[in-house]
Write a structure and sequence with these properties.
Number of strands: 18
Distance between the termini: 20 Å
Strand content: 15-25%
Shape: elongated
Largest sheet: 8 strands, mixed
Helix content: 25-40%
Bound molecules: zinc ion
Structural class: alpha/beta
Strand order of the largest sheet: 1-10-12-11-13-16-14-15
Amino acid sequence: MTIANVANDLNFQVIGQEMYSLIEELYPICRSITGEGFRQTLRRLQCLIPLTVHEVPSGTQVFDWTVPKEWNIRDAYVKNAVGDRVIDFRQSNLHVVNYSVPIRQRMSLAELKQHLFTLPDHPDWIPYRTSYYKETWGFCLSHRQYLELKDEEYEVCIDATLEPGHLTYGGYYVAGESSDEVLFSCHACHPSLCNDNLSGVALVIFLARHLAAGPHRYSYRFLFIPGTIGSLTWLSMNETCLSNIRHGLVVACVGDKGHPSYKKSRQGNAEIDRVFSHVLKHSDPDYEILDFSPYGYDERQYCSPGFNLPVGCFSRTPHGRFPEYHTSADDLTLVTPAALADSFSKCLAVVNVLEGNRTYVNQYPKGEPQLGRRGLYRLMGGVADSGLDEMAVLWVLNLSDGTHSVLDIAERSGCGFDSIRRAADALIECGLLK
Ligand SMILES: [Zn+2]
């Protein structure tokens, strides 16, 4: 039973629904790069896969960075002169600038306004703001709410703690026949935002479950980390085993209705870059391949020059290019089960190509072997009753000289990977290929 066989039996509609349900469950949690919200998220994920949770103390040096103090929040509000909560953390955790230091103080509107953030162009949306590495505080609110604030005295309270503690991340390793690894990484540090990046979390969870269920050639590693500081921490603690990573993907923003997009690794022509491009080219009329740039998600760290790992990034609409990005409008209406299922199927197709991308040798390279004599003549009539493409058979025979992989042959012939692989399997069966 190969991964491809297993994939044929999957009901993608059901999987899309399950991914969406997981996002619904995780959506209310107030996550950050450290703290209980992140732990609570991992505990929920541990019900789905046997995730190992790692705790790294605040103050730990990771390359040029330091693991920050741990942030936890219980409540936050701004009350007007009559004691009504005009900004209320209980209504949306986006109302508080993530990582705000605790404060309890009365102040004028003018003073309060120094700490308020809105989106005048989208007056009903609450922006998502963070201040991880500068100790300050603030509130985010809709511009409409902001315009309604009267010139009076306000009571401001952020009931939070910022103290030495830990950075938490989750990892899951599924061993394969080889110690060569495929890395899937997602950031899980955003509070109530769906596409960025609960969609990525859900996709990586369902991939992990799927890959743990069947045999495979590669080993697979799944990381659920806080953005930037999490990948730096993981890289710093695992520097000696990075040479096992053969291919990698950062997964983010994979639940919106936009078409799929793939951002290449820094290497630009790594196998994962070619495989993802091939899968999109052969499965979607609309897709986008983007060159590497040192901006985006954790591929920035994996692809920093000291590591230069073959890690690309899979998204639908890339970050910053959908108006709802980092606002309260990145909610449960922005992601759909159908888009999640499609993203899942793309990743499975990529895994399928990676797993099947081997190099063969034609055993009868002097002239074309006589296919009819070996029961392959029907193929040559161009009739597709066997499901084989006669051009694929000829391309495999011609290019299988020990230097061209199945993907090389697929790319050069213009055929899909599966078509070339089926031809190769048929030729192996009759002894023409090894
Ligand atoms: Zn983000």
